[in-house]
From TrEMBL:
Top-rank lineage group of the source organism: Eukaryota
Keywords: Lipoprotein, Membrane, Mitochondrion, Mitochondrion inner membrane
Localization per Swiss-Prot or TrEMBL: Mitochondrion inner membrane
Family to which this protein belongs: Belongs to the prohibitin family.
Organism of origin: Canna indica (Indian-shot)
The name this protein goes by in its record: Prohibitin
A biological process from GO: mitochondrion organization
Quaternary structure and interacting proteins, as annotated: Component of a prohibitin multimeric complex in mitochondrial membranes.
Species classification: Eukaryota, Viridiplantae, Streptophyta, Embryophyta, Tracheophyta
Membrane topology of the entry: Single-pass type II membrane protein
Record carries keyword Mitochondrion: yes
InterPro entries noted in UniProt: Band_7, Band_7/SPFH_dom_sf, Prohibitin
Length: 148
């Protein structure tokens, strides 16, 4: 069910006793699907204004303005729309979480590479230091051997 509330401003050009045939704006609203009413509200409003203008022109009435002031939809549509909004929010949340996990994994990977490089450099330095120590020990033992 779709329902529109309209604001219609009219003025009568000349005093007359013509009988005005009422126009049911709900019948006009029924010509459009729910999506059109939401996304093309101004265009729908202009079409309703055009139809109303045509219907009153033979009665010396000028339609100054007609616009949709509110739209309401059936419970089923409202529930479906809310479910769609919730699903869209869940998708956005999942995208955010996925992006966060990927970025964290990339950061962790970079950290691991840097840590491995530092460990390699430390081991490399230790290797040189141990060679220096062994060399010094070798020299000391040779010096002891020559002193005896």
């Amino acid at each position: 069910m779709k329902k529109a509330t309209m604001r219609v401003v009219v003025r009568q050009k000349l005093a007359g006793t013509s009988t005005l045939k009422p126009v049911n704006e709900q019948a006009v609203v029924a010509l459009y699907n729910t999506s059109q009413l939401i996304t093309q509200r101004e265009a729908v409003s202009m079409e309703i204004r055009k139809i109303l203008t045509e219907s009153v022109k033979n009665f010396n009435i000028v339609l100054d303005d007609a616009s949709i002031t509110s739209l309401s939809f059936g419970r089923e549509f409202t529930n479906a729309f809310e479910a769609k909004q919730v699903a869209a929010q869940e998708v956005e949340h999942a995208k955010f979480i996925t992006k966060f996990i990927v970025e964290k994994a990339e950061h962790d990977k970079k950290s691991d590479v840097i840590r491995a490089q530092l460990n390699f450099e430390n081991l490399h330095e230790l290797n040189f230091e141990s060679k220096d120590i062994l060399h010094d020990l070798n020299l000391e033992s040779k010096d002891k051997g020559t002193q005896e």
